[in-house]
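Case study B.
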Amino acid sequence: MGKLKKKYTEGASRTYTTRNRALKKLQLSLADFRRLCILKGIYPVEPRSAKRANRGSTKPTTFYYTQDVKLLSSEPLIAKFRHHKIFLRRLQHALGKKDFTRAKSLNSHRPEYTLNHLVIERYPSFTDALRDLDDALCMVFLFASMPSVKRVPKQGIEECKRLAAEFMHYVIFTHSLRKVFLSIKGIYYQAEIQGQTVTWIVPYQFSQRTPDDVDFKVMATFLHFYRTLLGFVNYRLFTTVNLSYPPKLDEILDENAAGLGSLKVESRRVEDIIGNVQSDGEHDAANNAEANKDTSAQDKAAMERRLGSLGTKMQAIAAADSAAPAYQVASDGAGLHSDDEDDVARAESLLFGKQVFFLSREVPRYSLEFIIRAFGGRLGWDSSSGGGSPYTENDHAISIQIVDRPVQGHRFLDRIYVQPQWIYDSINANRLLNTQDYLVGEQLPPHLSPFVEYAQGDYVPEEASRMAAAAAGFEGEVSNLKPEDRDEPESEQEEATADNVEGESADEDEQLDSSDDEESDEEGDAKAEKQYQKQIAAEHAGVSFSEYHQQQQQKKKIKQSDNSKSVKPRGKAPKRSKAQIEEEERQKMAISMLSRKKRRVVNRAQADAYKQSKDANAL
Amino acid sequence: MGAAGRSNQRKRSAAHRDEVAEEFPASSGIDVPSEPEASSDEDDNVEEGDFDATLRMMADDQGFGSDEAEDFAAQDSDEDAEDEDEEKSEIHSSDIDGASSEEDEEDEVEDEEESSVSDDDKNPLLVRAASRSTEGQETVVDSDEEAENSVLDGKDIDRLTINDFGRDLGSWKEYRKTLPQIDAGYASDSSTEEPVNTIGNVPIEWYADSLHIGYDIDGKRIMRPATGDELDKFLDNMDNPDVFRTARDEINQQNVKLSEEEIDIIRRIQGGSIPDADYNPYEDTVEWFTSQTMQTPLTAAQPSKRGFVPSKWEHNRVMKIVRAIRQGRITRGAPVSTAPQYFDLWADAEAEDSVGTGRRQRERLAAPRTVLPTHAESYHPPGEYLPTEEEKRKWLEQDPDYRKRNFLPHDFGTLRTVPGYDRFIQERFQRCLDLYLAPRMKKKVSHLDPEELMPKLPDPRDLRPFPSRESLVYLGHTGRVRSISVDPTGMWLLSGSDDGTVRLWELITGRCAKIWDFKDTVYRVAWCPSQDSCIFAAAVGSRVVIVIPSDLCDDNRLLVSEELVKAGFGSAAAAETDDDSSLPVSWDMPTSTEQASGMHVSIAMHRTVKSVTWHRRGDYLATLTSEEGGSSVLIHQISKHKSQRPFRKLKGAVQHIKFHPTRPWFLVTTQRYVRIYNLMQQSLIKTLQPGVKWISSVDVHPQGDNVIVGSYDKKLSWFDLDLSMKPYRSIRYHSQAIRQVQFSRKFPLFATASDDGTIQVYHGMVYQDLNQNPLVVPLKILRGHEIRNSLGVLDCQFHPIQPWLLSSGADGTIRLWM
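Model:
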């Protein structure tokens, strides 16, 4: 007889540990443990059998991986927490004794900790960090628009504001914004950064009421980590596009509420880069004394060579810069990669590249300034919504004025007055939409979410199908619609061209439809030949005739349904035809042939499909 | 008077008792302890400076001042008496003295009046003093001159002591009154000035309407002094050279001229310096304990070591700090970090990553991303996304945790009307909670396309022919049609019903050719499968009737049939059977009327006959009765009119019996199993276990290797006899019990009839190649029969030649499906 094995020495009870056990092991208070979990990104898990994991107990418990708890135990932050605890005790003692000098000196030596090591630990590569940036951005943008609360003092709010502005500057600089959405909760932005899709939401700028049912202690802990993360991400993003970090804050502009303009984004100076290289060299030397001396020296030489050429370019740019308006950041840094002319061309190729906007005081500048600049547009704004506007209202360069009021009093004849939704819809459609529907006082078309992807059987709103149809027509005519030169002030013409394009596209659609029929008559033989070949191919592939026939039928059906959809998207559910009933019956019979397991899966899938269709039908 | 001063004074008074008695007015009145020597001179000066004020006060006080002086004297003498008093008590004592002296005052005032009148001549000194006192009263009128005189007088006077009077206290008292007023000075505790008017803190306005302005110390009214009108006042002011140093005493309604000293005080206050001109803030220190060693020390205790040895603990503490400074632990101000806050954190990480030297860790599950907003969340959504009033109400009533959406779609129309979202922070917080409190697990979500799971079945259209639509309905039966049978030529259809009739139909036309009325439930009808004969058997009540429908068949077949059926009568075998009383069977000749209608033999049994089935040759017939045990299944030989009991005993209630189509096998179906017996060897070959609760019917594929079993629990099981005792395939389609399963003899088809009113037709192809599994494809669901009393289709039969199906139902109809 073998040795009796002790219970709970392996298996689930080893893999998992309960929260209380973890607390005991780490000798931490619950609050500290939670803070640590937040910072380290440790999450509870759900074992397959809670009873087995909890040594036979079925009490509702929170489980963690034992490995995770082990990882926590070697965390240097724990010691920092303890130091802080001791510090607080001392401070309190000193204050209690009214020993203010000691309290002051204690406070000046307040133990601080950074979370730098956690960022690299949680996100070993930069891509990982980008992938997980959504929550960080949402949080930082939220606190950037909040008043300071007890747990997040003014200093933290200021940092959030700065980080948010820096990030927006990067998005503007790289033109990486993709989608925007005006929701009732706030404004969603989606950007594509180094291949990663990053989405964040910014609340509408109203004074936020700090609610009572929110534990700001938790929020502050998250924010601390997110701030650190975003700081490092910003640094990396800025340096990859050769911008200096941190950007300089123009305090005068900042006081005048110049918004994004108050941060001066500049390309990295040559000295900086050299300095970095040197420091890198030193760093290398410190790390591995002799190992790669040769390589580092080579690198250095190569870098210096590159920098030499850079310097000449920079001079050229500096000369160009003096002529260019200061707010145009794009021309600053992009010059490092390409020539100035290329840059201008690139800017003009963007959606709003050739437009100059003016924002009335009632539109949300904090959002519009960001997105217009991210799409290459230039803009000015009313002085009441902040200083530092490069254009005044009566500047004749302005082509589009964004207003959000029922009636516009005084109008300049050489510009169009549109409502802000036009900007957002245009960005989502990735083309300049017809302004006719968006003029001042017009009933706006519905604003749709750009994040919705339609699966088969989903309900497609009328507006979406209309836009899709328009976009399809637009693609063929891309070359025709070039924004006209600003020298001639005729915006009507532009509209007219846009109108024409859309009209044409619609026509073309019809033509396409009709051409199908015509073709069948004219090229009947060729078609029959083609079909025959297809049939043969199908036969080779082992598809029976009936199947092939069916496929063909289905294809036709889909085509028809598409057509009918485009014509009448919200028709009533048509009466089921005989064929459909038969098909359903066959489906049912086929299901009856399945094993019980598979049948269950199929039934569930069908139930889901049914639910989806029900939802779609409800709309 | 300070404590030190007092104690000083006490010492002195102890030391020079006599001297004090001599010079008490000066030394006790103005007491400057620090400079006892100099004080006397200064006192004199003060006395000089203050003199006119003193005099005026004396005049104002009308004798009270002298009482004061007397009080002081009394006080001092008291002090002499009570030798070692505490300071506090001394202060008290002065108060007490003050109180007690008040009592004396009245007497003394009286005394004074008396003495001033009567004792004028008693003593020259007294006379002088009295004259002085009268002069003092005059000073109200002409104070300046008098003051000068009195100062001189005061200097000149040889002051007498109490000793000079000896026992004559009365004269001492008198004399005392003549002495000049003592100015207490600012250093004094007690104020010499007491207001004449005793109204206290009451506003004088209250007396504005009355003739008096208050009361004096005796409670007598003080009448309002006469005042002139404004003009007089003005003139007075003009005349008075001292108008600028005159103040108004409201309480006493008098103008008071401020003395030089008072003005000096005012000036000092205005200048921000100490009001008392005499006070020296920078006095020299007095060494109470001298540095010189006294011959007799004050205390005899040993001096403490602490006094001359440096403290060890202090030293330790200092050294601790010193060490900390040396080690750099204590620095001036907070340490300033020079490192930049942010740097390229991933610079090394990525190089390392490429090498692959990373600690192996459990794969972290990234938190699921938040779901992106749909159109419904738009500030201006399409109209169809807006909730109706009903939906709104429902949403509001719903528990927030169970809501499908955490917001209510709303159309704001324009961007300017969009308000701030009030639950923004809460939602962010909720997300935070989800991130660190919600358990994360990898859940396998099958992204299986259900289409993929679906069996790759050939299209039914490729498997034609099969019955797919209803083409004929045979109407006539009034009860449920329990059984139907098609004759081997495929021309005639036989049906037995609950209404007690067996009907013969022309299959193609639906014409009812003949009716046999048995007046008893017909459970089953069955054509003899032999092509040569034309016989059918019908289970009617508790007997089986063998019928030859003579109109239908040609003479040849009729002859063969009749021969077969009638040969048994009177045969030895039949006699044997008759003898065998153990079998509950009797072969009877039907009545003549019955014979006329074609019935030739009637096999009577004890119980109801449930089922009748022919052997493929057409000579043997098996019956199933409702009794228990072995005698429920009997096999009858028609040609010999002989019955056999193949099973002595049988387990379970037999549901169904069937001859195997190719082999000498016999299938007996109990509630849960199908047993296959070899009749030749009289042995059990196989037991099929379909795994169902209650088998209803069984059929064997014409080739003999496959069996289908239908059950009341809706399942159809396909058995391959070569393979396993368990079903090769179970199919469940019907929603109600399966009543009948049937193979087609000619086509690869089979059908199931069910109580749900449907017939399911399958393609059941059995291949010659033993390696290839039989192909089962559902082809068609036939609907048409009505459901009566939860009974649907009761029987179904394939046409022997055509791919047609016939079915009978509880609704009394028979239907032909082509």
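The domain at 462-817 of chain B is CATH 2.130.10.10 (Methylamine Dehydrogenase; Chain H). The remaining cases will be described in the next quarterly update.
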